[in-house]
């Protein structure tokens, strides 16, 4: 029951942002731990496993927003500056959305992520053992980082 309410709230939020802002901007990151595993999250309102991230708040830099999102979604801490990979147009969300994509190496998880209203599951995965329902966009970003796919400009 809670799931449909969150989806409805998410739709209202996107509609509000579309009317109140000329463009929406978010951040996502491929976060690797010291063993080379990647951190993924499963949202309550979207199917599949995703890279962590979210929308930027007013008066927040991209790196500040990224650090906030990583704390909120995974209790992750950056141990070195994130590497800017690409800025993508995300037409799947709206005609005005863009995603700044970072690579974060040697992230540290301060404590395991407890499921909440937004994140129902989270964890580190070996690149050859990703969950079956990892999203296509997430798989494309990982392939781009590995050099097996050419970089794209659309999320």
From TrEMBL:
Keywords: Hydrolase
Cofactor entry: Mg(2+)
SUPFAM superfamilies in the record: Nudix (SSF55811)
Domain of life: Bacteria
One Pfam family per UniProt: NUDIX
Domain Nudix hydrolase intervals: 22-148
Name listed for the protein in its UniProt record: NUDIX domain-containing protein
Organism whose genome encodes this protein: Sinorhizobium garamanticum
């Amino acid at each position: 029951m809670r799931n449909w309410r969150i989806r409805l709230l998410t739709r209202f939020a996107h509609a509000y942002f579309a009317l109140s802002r000329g463009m929406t901007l978010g951040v996502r990151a491929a976060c690797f731990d010291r063993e080379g595993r990647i951190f993924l999250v499963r949202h309550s309102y979207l199917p599949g496993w995703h890279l962590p991230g979210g929308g930027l708040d007013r008066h927040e830099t991209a790196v500040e927003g990224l650090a906030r999102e990583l704390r909120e979604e995974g209790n992750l801490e950056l141990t070195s500056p994130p590497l800017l990979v690409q800025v993508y147009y995300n037409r799947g969300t709206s005609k005005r959305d863009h995603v700044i994509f970072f690579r974060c190496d040697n992230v540290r998880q301060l404590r395991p992520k407890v499921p909440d209203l937004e994140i129902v599951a989270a964890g580190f995965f070996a690149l050859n053992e990703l969950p079956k329902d990892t999203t296509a966009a997430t798989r494309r970003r990982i392939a781009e980082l590995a050099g097996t796919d050419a970089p794209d400009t659309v999320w």
